[in-house]
Amino acid sequence: ETGVTQSPTHLIKTRGQQVTLRCSSQSGHNTVSWYQQALGQGPQFIFQYYREEENGRGNFPPRFSGLQFPNYSSELNVNALELDDSALYLCASSRLPGAYEQYFGPGTRLTVT
Amino acid sequence: KNEVEQSPQNLTAQEGEFITINCSYSVGISALHWLQQHPGGGIVSLFMLSSGKKKHGRLIATINIQEKHSSLHITASHPRDSAVYICAVSPGGGADGLTFGKGTHLIIQP
User: Fold this and answer.
1) Of A17, A105, B65, B77, which has the highest C-beta tally within 10 A?
2) Non-local CB neighbours of B25 within 8 Å, separated by 6+ positions
3) B50: nearest CB among A55, A56, A99
4) What is the pLDDT of residues B10-46, one digit of tens each?
5) Residue from the list B35, B41, B102 with its beta carbon closest to the beta carbon of A41
6) B97 in contact with A at a CB cutoff of 8 Å?
7) Closest Cα partner for B49 from B66, B35, B32?
8) Longest dimension (CA), chain B
9) Closest-CA residue to A9 (of A105, A78, A88, A108)
């Protein structure tokens, strides 16, 4: 196990609602990245936080937002949920941005109905 | 934007066989990652490499930077190796996350 935890494990929401997913990083890691994995696809990069600031962002709309806290835990917030937001959401922590080993959490399975 | 291609997409083999999974990418990178994903979603990092070759147990990963190509080998495969193997690359800068291939679904039959 990696020491990265995510909550909740599973979540069912209705279209239009808002959701908050949480991630607790590996000890000593100050960088967290969030990924969306649709069924049968590879993960897609949403954004990365480093020392509480957004450090990079993939091709996701502004209704996907995040936070990183002083203890380096992190949140992913999604507003105005759409059916296509149904996916596995993964967070990964690393010691620094860039070419460092990524430690993944178990993921949160979000279903939007 | 880096394009990461893996082959094969699906692979079924008999226990004991030597397995090779290939990965190619289109743009220069700072590192390449091989990851393992089991049903249920959890991803485990197997290797991170930027040059040469790494070995861990029955797993071997190689990378050729000039050819933008990497391979993951499994020797003496076992049914517990059955999983999805994903190749992912770290871009040249530090501010973007990994770009992933679609994965290779490996089944090892007893």
Assistant:
1) A105
2) B2, B3, B4, B5, B32, B68, B69, B87, B89, B99
3) A99
4) 999 999 999 999 999 998 888 999 999 988 778 999 9
5) B102
6) yes
7) B32
8) 44
9) A108
